[in-house]
UniProtKB/TrEMBL annotation:
It comes from Rubrobacter radiotolerans. This is Aspartokinase. GO terms for cellular component: cytosol. It comes from the Bacteria. NCBIfam families: asp_kinases.
Amino acid sequence: MIKRMESVEQASCSGWRAGLSDPLVMKFGGTSVGSGAAFRRAAGTVAGEAAKQRPVAAVVSAMSGVTDTLLAYAEATARLDGTGQTATGSTLEGSLAELHRSLYERHLDAAREAVGPALLPGVERELLSVLESLLGSLTDEHPSEAARRAGVVVHGERLSAVVLAAAISTAGVPAEVAPDPIATDSAFSEAEVDVERTRARCAERVEPVLRRGSVAVVPGFVGRDRQELPTTLGRGGSDLSATVLGRGIGASEVWILTDVPGVLDADPRLVEGAGTLPEMSYREAHLFAGLGAKVLHHRTMEPAAAAGIEVSVKNSFAPGEWGTRISARECGRGVRCVAVRDGLSIGVLSAGERTAGKDVLCALGCDGGGLQVLREVGADGEVAAVVGIGAPTDADLVRGLASLAASGIEHLWAGSTALGLTFVVGSADARFALGALHGALVGRTESGVESEVPA
Ligand code: ASP
Ligand code: MG
């Protein structure tokens, strides 16, 4: 096992945290709680770890699809006309009743499968109270539209947390919902975490539950601003909730349980034969997620790296398997994984442009007129970049160029950037280039031998 990086941050806080020994945070994504069977499986996994006498906090996403539904309702009810009709023409009342019915049924159906009969009436009551609060959030006054949207969408995680806590109790370990330990600013749709206030809230809301010997079930994605208004950490933000919570309670390990076996070394929808990475460094995982690897929210590694928390990405169907372990450890030379980013153009930042705008993906180097950059321009972009992340060598650059040439793909630029080994190609070639570069670069070490899975 990879040794944990000692961190100053944890050492300085160990005093008031005495007694909570080695807590574990386990995060379940939307498909890992997408049905009654999935809740039961997740609850069994949590109960299994908690039975090892280890404090466990479970962070849970909304059931798959629920966040999208809630956002659609928030949108449709945003501009009600005088007739009380939503943007889609249905009456507000009818539409809210339908939302209430469908969410109640979906969660109750799941609970019937995962929760024992003794706990079911309590779950019904709690689901109804969360749904009442949801309807309130859709119709009440809010300080802004963004605040309203956040206030609506956080209910998805509140509903799934109710079911998961009861399912864990059914699996034999007491569990309680420990709501909203994460403190944020008021950027409602993608809020910034306040580390110190989060620590204090964890001490108040989560640690007492763990000390009682119960599993703390924390709704993911959700934060609270200084006025206690609900905020969100951005789409896919439950991963970030897990590492933020891990830092808040002094965990040395966070497990991200998902529907794939770990972090794959390329997008499996684009590359046949993408494999699972046994290990990654925080740096590599951060870059990979930033380039769009869907398995992790792009900011997940920030709290983990700051606090030296080992993050394991595991398949929720096979949590006993290794998955991918992410730590401070750098894994040696070579390209670990490849990502593609489309919708780019090559441009030049003139000396007059003082700051590289938000649309700049990376710098390519200087030419006479200024700094050459890759810009993200969306649909107008005619080029794509394939990036090899890891510790690439010159030999990798040569091998990569040879593989593109052998596949008849023209490269427009190639070299090292802040992201990794970067090959710029025409948009039409992006997918082929990704496949060719994956084949040529990933899984090789210096000597060209396939890398080994650690024991
Ligand atoms: N439920 C939220 C989303 O779909 C957060 C998450 O699942 O991570 O974006
Ligand atoms: Mg996710």
